[in-house]
Amino acid sequence: MERLVVLGGGESGVGTAILGQKEGFEVFVSDKGIIKEEYKKVLEHFEIDWEERQHTEEKILNADLVMKSPGIPDKVPVVVKLKEKGVPIISEIEFASRYTKATIIGITGSNGKTTTTMLTNHILKEGGLHVGMAGNIGDSYAKMVAEKDFDFYVLEISSFQLDGIVDFKPHIAILTNITPDHLDRYEYKFENYIASKFRIAKNQTKEDYLIYDADDEVIVQWLQKNPVQSKLLPFSINRKLDEGAYLENDKIIIKTQNNTIEMGTDALALEGKHNVKNTMAATTAAKLISIRKETIRRSIENFQGAEHRLEKVLKIHHVQYVNDSKATNVNATYYALDSMKTPTVWIVGGVDKGNDYKELMPLVREKVKAIICLGTDNSKIKDAFGNVVDLVVETFAMDEAVKVAYKIAERGDTVLLSPACASFDLFKNYEDRGKQFKEAVKKL
């Protein structure tokens, strides 16, 4: 019996353990931290051996196969030792894909992947397909494959998950964009991160498709130097394309295999240029799976966006409060500011991942009337924008930040939480940060 060791007892780890056991592996789950109660109950229900607060080497190094959760870096001692022994280390995405014959749509990118994943899933569901949504979002992909294997999977895939693939191959891959993010995991080399994202197309053949942003210089240049096998379907909001999706007179036009759909952008439930792009990517994928034009139209009109992503919370005294806590990097915040149509009070800050705020300068000059810093160290934000914005206030708790915003904002303004940073200094994660914002707004 082959031994499968799962490092990390979270959503993907426990899902992998369940599938591994079903497929006849002897399974052991090891977590350096504490495993949540709900996951312990699941492991005990399936009688799977587990440990927490430690990695016992004699129980790990004898593995035939290791699934490493995406949050665990390669530099961890036990991972280094496994590599030295030549034990294969894969991601959940790789493991689960070996046990399903479903058609896979894989979505990656620095920003927009959650919205694109949710929208693609929504269109396929509305089209009556038997579809599961998993990966970096919601439920474990491996657990889905174990319990109710679907005909189609829409997977949101992070670069960390792609680092652990060997044969994984989506029939349709979507690459939303590539901007510097998580460089601390890639030796601070942008090209390592780009290469990681492009692994999504590494095993594709000419029967498969790669949908990508043709306005993204990083993607276009990489493809010129590193051609892929798959059929390319670009999308653009700047120019007309022979094949793919583009914008013309406020209409989205999608051309695939001698077949054209047109849709007015006024029908989109989501605002902002970046959401036009997310919609182009999702609808191109749906079109390749032969979803009917009417279904696609209806789906994009009634789609509810992702929580914590430009989410309208409340309007109080004619001031709109918007929760964009999921903006954990500069590029995501760029999209948020770009979609603001009114003077903006901007709440920003947190754990800086090596941010360069220069690209936000023109938008901040044009749209931001005040900045409220929310982090334990706000010096970089104050240095960047202190001369551009009249009012910069420092706060150290969400309640305080929201109260200050309430005082500053006037009729017709927008208060925007779009931190451009990770959340770990003051919050558990970006969801916690977004929930605290929404609660503070409701208390006003």
Structure notes:
- By secondary structure, the protein is an alpha/beta fold.
- It folds into three domains: about 5-90, NAD(P)-binding Rossmann-like Domain (Rossmann fold, 3-Layer(aba) Sandwich); about 95-300, Mur-like, catalytic domain (UDP-N-acetylmuramoyl-L-alanine:D-glutamate ligase, 3-Layer(aba) Sandwich); about 310-444, Protein-Tyrosine Phosphatase, Chain A, CATH 3.90.190.20.
- The protein is built from 17 helices and 20 strands.
- It has helices at about 10-20, 35-45, 55-60, 75-85, 90-95, 115-125, 140-150, 160-165, 190-200, 215-225, 275-290, 295-300, 330-340, 360-365, 380-385, 400-410, 430-444, and strands at about 5, 25-30, 50, 65-70, 90, 105-110, 130-135, 150-155, 170-175, 210-215, 230-235, 245-250, 250-255, 260-265, 310-315, 320-325, 345-350, 370-375, 390-395, 415.
- α1 (about 10-20) packs parallel to α7, α6 crosses α12 and α16 (about 400-410) packs across α17 (about 430-444).
- The longest helix is centred in the middle third of the chain and has 16 residues, at about 275-290.
- It is globular.
- One of its GO terms (molecular function) is ATP binding.
- InterPro entries: Mur-like_cat_sf, Mur_ligase_C, Mur_ligase_C_dom_sf, Mur_ligase_cen, MurD.
- Pathway: Cell wall biogenesis; peptidoglycan biosynthesis.
